[in-house]
Design a protein that fits this description.
six-stranded mixed beta sheet; 21% strand; Beta Polymerase, domain 2; alpha+beta
Length: 194
């Protein structure tokens, strides 16, 4: 890894932690902040994540663990509410580097994709629908809502990626570092108890 890539990763990491940007937008904004051309090679997400963890350890070690705990507890509440849809937590909250600016990302594996929307409507939850690239490269709906997090005293974004039950195959394959990209409620409860 060259020095320029590390500088881009470190700048992107600061933007992820301080402004809540996702990795892609943070890397592109880092190029602008550093005055680099748009075609400059970008560091991998693994490198940025490593820099995020270093940044948190250096600048947020006193606040981040409590924020992560609060987000995981809120994720647990939503996973219990949506248990019939086999929810799995992913993203920063699952991986352990989330701060108060991070949203909660849940993958739902449904027999009927519309059933999750019906469940939200029955709970009088307001949500927005977007389409994003899913696990296997196909487009999937994401139901986005806000949920109040009392320990943080603010609303947190909760994003529900809606998958068919068949998509569950391969959903827990480990990443390049051997980590599971998401976990079910039992796995989350183990993290909360640790």
């Amino acid at each position: 890894m060259n020095d320029l890539a590390l500088e881009i990763a470190a700048t992107a990491a600061r933007l992820v932690v301080e402004e809540g940007l996702a990795f892609g937008p943070a890397k592109h904004r880092a190029l602008k902040e550093l005055g680099l051309p748009g075609r400059t090679a970008l560091p991998t997400n693994d490198v940025v994540e490593s820099e995020v963890r270093d940044y948190i350890a250096l600048f947020c070690a006193d606040t981040q663990p409590g924020e992560l705990q609060a987000l995981r507890e809120l994720a647990s509440v939503w996973m219990q509410r949506l248990a019939e849809f086999r929810p799995h937590l992913g993203g920063a909250v699952w991986q352990g580097w989330a701060t108060r600016l991070c949203d909660i990302d849940l993958a739902l594996f449904c027999d009927d994709p519309k059933s999750a929307e019906i469940a939200l409507i029955n709970r009088n939850e307001r949500y927005e629908v977007q389409t994003v690239r899913g696990l296997h490269g196909d487009d999937v709906d994401v139901l986005s809502l806000h949920s109040f997090c009392a320990p943080l005293n603010e609303d947190v974004g909760v994003h529900l990626r809606i998958y068919d039950l068949d998509d569950f195959r391969g959903a827990l394959l480990p990443d390049m570092q051997g980590r599971s990209p998401r976990g079910d409620l039992t796995a989350l409860e183990r993290l909360l108890a640790a």
